[in-house]
Amino acid sequence: MNYFRYKILNPSGGVSSGVIKLPYKEVLSAISHLERDGALAIDVRKLGRFTSFFVSLGSRSLNRKLKRTEQAEILNNMAVMLKAGIALTTALEEVAQGSEHPHLARDVNDIISRIQSGAAFSEAADNYSYIFPKTAIHLIKMGEETGKLDEMLKDAAGHLTRMQQIISDTKQALLYPTFVFTTMGIGIVFWFAFVVPKIILLFKEMDVKLPAITVGLLKISDFVQSYLIHIIIGVVVVIFTSIMTRKTSYKFKKATDFMFLKLPIVGTIINASILAFITEYFSLLINTGVDLLRSIQILKSSLGNAVYCEKLQDVSDGLERGEGIAYAFQNTAIFPTFVVRMINIGEVSGTLTGQLVYIAEEYRKRLSILVATIGKMIEPLVLIIAGVCFIIIIGGLFLPIYDLVSQISTF
């Protein structure tokens, strides 16, 4: 691929200019490409390596990101157009013209250029994963091989929509506990940093004897006051370091993923989300004709949880040894009995895809129920933690007041 600077006279009479990336080495080939729609090339020049490098660097720095709903819409629109008999390149041109993202229109035009140069659609689209994710690429390849590209694009759009629903439900379910406990933590720090010191200072000025619990609160308050900035910086550093270490250290990522899976409530949400994703994606791959081992490897590459990735590798190893699908899943000791039992039924009856779809739907329902009931699940825990903190703080502050009132009453 090379970059060309061009200036052309459009059929409408207007002049357009810019830089375009084309799969050609010669300027004459680039001119033929630019004039294919009736335009007239005024000036076309091939950029040198140095200039091309900076143009490429600048194009990569653009914010290229589409929501899954936008990706699904693109795939669905293309499926509808292809089913109606519209050519693939024409369907892609419609996508480019109807987009509100300038970089998307340019990149779709690049995909069109690659296809017109002889590349397969899946090969050209694979360079732009933000438009066509890996899931869609696998289905596009199957569509090219079977001649059912419109159906595969439709399936990919439906899959992305369901995945978005799973992710949206998971985030919504985790948002409430995260907000509650973060707010509680900030409130307790604020209390110890600004409220407790003033009350205890009043007790000292009145020469009240402080009980052990109040002395403990005083020490905590002094610590928070003295190291408040350090605490804030420490929390930020720990969060940033953890995020970066997860990206660079597989062992740390696996350890933290395992910890999250074991947390109460949060672990339930994450497990339900992952199982819904695995069974949904697995059923889609099997239904499109991808073999079992290849499907497991694709699942592994698409899954972000290190613990489940290792278990899927164990499943793959079991299948290579000749074990049954259900038996291989059962041996991992992480997939619930319900999942293993339904896979076994599908394996024996020859309805594996249908059973996987049923499991995915069941776990999507569980996620929806969790989202609806998460407040009721968290409320008792919040009340217990808040109640204990309230009792300790109020007890530590009211005991000196009680002693003060007792001393006054003796006079």
Task: Give keywords.
three-stranded antiparallel β-sheet, 3 strands, 76% helix
Q: What order do the SSEs take from the amino end to the carboxyl end, as H and E?
A: EEHEHHHHHHHHHHHHHHH
**CA-CA gap between termini:** 96 Å
Shape: extended
Give the helix proportion (percent range).
over 70%
User: Mind summarizing the main beta sheet?
Assistant: 3 strands, antiparallel
Overall average residue pLDDT = 80
The neighbouring-strand order within the major sheet is 2-1-3
Model description:
The structure is a single chain. The chain contains 16 helices and three strands. The chain has helices at residues 27-34, 49-60, 68-83, 88-97, 102-116, 121-125, 134-146, 149-205, 212-248, 250-262, 266-287, 292-302, 306-320, 325-331, 337-349, 352-409; strands at residues 2-9, 15-22, 40-46. β1 (2-9) and β2 (15-22) form a beta hairpin. α4 (88-97) packs antiparallel against α5 (102-116), α11 (266-287) crosses α12 and α13 (306-320) crosses α14 (325-331). The model has no long low-confidence stretch (mean pLDDT 80).
